[in-house]
Structures are given as C-alpha cells and as structure tokens.
Amino acid sequence: MRKTKCKSSGSSTCSEINENTQKLNLKREIGLVSAVSLLAGTMIGSGIFMSPQWVLYHIGSPGGSLIIWAACGLLAMLGSLSYAELGTVIKESGGDYIYILRTSGPLPAFLLAFTSMLVVRPASIAGIALSFAEYAVAPFYQGCPLPELVVKFVAASCILLLAIANCLNVRWSMSIQVFFMAAKLISLVVIIIGGVVMLINGHTSSFQNAFQGTIVGINPIGIAFYQGLWSYDGWNNLNYVTEELKRPEGFISNILNLGCLCNALQIWMKLTKDKLLIVNLPRAIMIAIPLVTVLYLLVNISYLAVMTPTELMSSSAVAATWGNKVLGSWSWLMSVAAALSSFGSLNGTFFSGGRVCYVAAREGHMPDILSMAHVRRLTPSPALIFTTALSLLVLIPGNFKSIVNFFSFTAWFFYAITLSGLLYLKLKKRHLPNSYEVPIVIPIIVIIAAVFLVLAPIIDDPKIEYLYVSLFILSGVMFYIPFVHFKLCPNLLTKATVFLQLFLEVAPTEKNTD
C-alpha cells in the first residue's frame, strides 16, 4: 500500500511521510510531562496495592520489607540511568531488544523478542489487568469471595478498551497516561496522609522491634525482591519509545532556518544540537523514579501504621483493607483509586509493549505485517492487536503470583545481557557519540544484582519450573534458524501480509531519524 497523493485536509499526516520512500514514521508525541507520566504512571499501578503483603511475607519483618522497597527503588534508578546512556548512543526504539541486537547480535535479540512477545509482555499486561479487575469488582462483593469469571471478564474488557485507544491515537494514549498519573498521585497522597494521622495518634506497634522475625536467606530475599521489583516494573519504558520522544532541540532548528544569525552562531548551535538530542530521557528518569521510590516507602509506612503485619499479610487487597480501617463507609473510594491506578499502569505497559513487537518485525525478526502502521492514525496497530490477542490468552489461566515470578526471572536475565552490551560499548566503542554517560560502576552493580536475581532462587530452592523457563527461551532457536536465518515460507507470509495490509489499512514504516 503506497500513498501517492495527500489531500490538504490531511497535511499533518502527510508531513509525517517521507517524500522519497513513501513510507510512514511514528509521530514524536511524547514530551517531558508525558515521559514522566509514562515512567511513573506505569510503575505506580497494581504492584503497590498487591505486592506489599508478599514482600512482608517473604522477608518476615516490617523493617526488612522497607529496606527491600528502598533497595528495589535504588536498583531501578541505577538500571534506568544505565539504560538512559544506551538510549543516547543507540537512538532507536525497542528497548532491550534493539540494544541486544546492536551489541550482541541477531540470535540473542530474537530470543528476547520471542520470549517477550509470547510470554513476558502478555503476562505483565494480564497481571495488571487482573489487579484492576479485582479492585474494580471488590466494592460489589464486600465480605464475599470475588467470582473468578467476573474478574477475568472485567480484566479482558479493560485490555480490549486500552487496545482500541492505543490503536486509534498516540495522543489519546498519552492523555490517558497523564490523567491517570494525577489520579495515582492523589490516591497515594491520601494514603500517606492517613498514615501520618495514625502515627500521630500513636499507632506505632508495627515499628517496635521492626526487624524481629526477619528471614535471612538467598531464596527469601530473592523472592522478596521479585515482588518488590514488580511494583517498579516500567523503569525502562521510555527506551521502548525513543523514536517517539519529542526532541528539545526543535527550537534550535527553527532559529537556524531564519538565516539572520552569524555563521559562528549557526555552527555553535549545530554542534550543540546533538548534545541535546534525547535530554528528555535522563531528565524524566531523574524526576520519575525518585518520586516513585519516596511514595512507595511512605505508602508502606502508612499500611504498617494502620495494619499489623499479620493483618497486612492476610489481606488480598491491601488498599481496600486500609480504606476499611481509615475511611470507614467511604472505603470504597480506595478500591476505585486502586482500580484507576492499575488502569493507568496497564495503559503504559500496553503502549510500550507493542513497540517491542513492532521494532522486532521492522528488523526482520517477526512477520512484516507487525512492522506496519496505520496510514492515517500513524499507530503500530498490527503489533498492538497481536499483543492484545496474546494477553487475552495468558489471562485465561492467569495467576498473579506465578505471573510475577516468571516475569521477573526472564526479565532480569535479559537485563543482564543488555547491560553487558553497555559495558562493551564503554570499553570497546568509546568513539561513538554520546550525550549522556554514567560511571561504569553503575551498570556493573546492576548486572551483579541481575545475576543474583536470576541464580539465587535456583541455587537456594531448585524447581523444575526454572528448567522449563530456560528450555522455553532456548526453543526460540528452532524458530530462528528456519524462519529468520533461512527465511523459509516467504510466499505464504507475503500473501497473508498483503491481505492484512489491505484489511487493516497499514503500510511499511521507517525509522524516525528526523
């Protein structure tokens, strides 16, 4: 499908099409506010409302759980800063996938895309959707067990609704993200204020002998980190949409076109332009992750001020239990707030998750149809539809705890590979232009933590499930060799691509390098 003529009413769309190649670019719609909302809004979601009891359960004490939450925030911050450097060296969307492809080669990158697209991203989306559904349904079944069928139906409806919004317009997705980010902040501030009031009134029993009962061991610490890091999931989301970040040097380009500046000033601005290329990436990280870490610590203190550790661990919906004790007849507001928070987090996860599929297809590792964008809306709708379908399939047998553990195990394995690539670039490719750099000790610390999170549960408590996970990742080789390396069955895929291209009104895209 080729676009040969543009009507005047569609000039904004036509401006995004490269005149020489007649291919599409995804729009740069994400500014600093949207970037902060995408990061913080994705992290603040189901985890802070569902993981606190699991972190406390595995570590055994209130003091130990607070240390875990702070350490998880620090690890997410160090990882994000390392990814920010990768994003300023490799200025392409796709996150871990594109970084592994450029530093480690096509096979490891394909295994990441294979695992991420088929399990990791769909499982993450399904887990957050289940959290949203539980809180959305809870006010209608007070004091009764939640019907599993109803919960899953609501979760599926939420996924479909966000799929439609993301397919229709990028700006709509970002507007949803910013709006629900504000809702999250309000709900967390209410929880924090309630906790402060309870502490002032003398509810400090949970903090007396705060470290009594702490469970020290490789496996419990590792699992507690898994549960805590689930709440920080999304710390690398901006790297998946690097090509859609607004460039802050746009005003410089406009000035250069005026032609009234002296040559020396023009040369200086051109040299400065690359230094400002993706400044929104580290800026958003430095704002979002410290904000989230502080909020998480204060919210957990509030939970412990209102509930005893035993009550917290026995609660299936921590925010709702907190609301019953503090807000009384208005406790249903906390279920609504938690549901809204999960909804915003799901939107951010969905937005970035579809980009992995889209970029992998653009690099030839997935069917071509997944690399295309809608000719008018300029959204990667085939990749988003594919991600939606897999998420709904994962939702059918979904269990929150098993989803978290499986996701964390596979994710940190590939984080370690990605950051090893950063070390390679730092040591062997120092000549590459780089507008942002972190000390080499930071990625080394994150790699060590990633290796610990991958190996600790296996060494301390070996289970057959870990072998299944490893075999599943390696099984991607059986698909890579015939379908990617030797490119078998091209005719069948070509016919399907043409049909879907016409049906979905999509066309090939190119990298956004403007």
UniProtKB/TrEMBL annotation:
Q: Which Gene3D superfamilies match?
A: Amino acid/polyamine transporter I (1.20.1740.10)
| TM stretches of this protein | 30-54, 66-86, 107-129, 149-168, 180-200, 251-269, 281-306, 332-361, 382-400, 406-425, 437-459, 465-486
Tell me the InterPro entries matching this sequence.
AA/rel_permease1, AminoAcid_Transporter
Where does this protein reside within or beyond the cell?
A: Membrane
Endpoints of the signal sequence: none
Q: Which Pfam families match?
A: AA_permease_2
Q: Topology relative to the membrane, per the entry?
A: Multi-pass membrane protein
| Principal location listed in the UniProt entry | membrane
**UniProtKB keywords:** Membrane, Transmembrane, Transmembrane helix
Protein name per the record:
BAT1 protein
State the encoding gene: Slc7a9_1
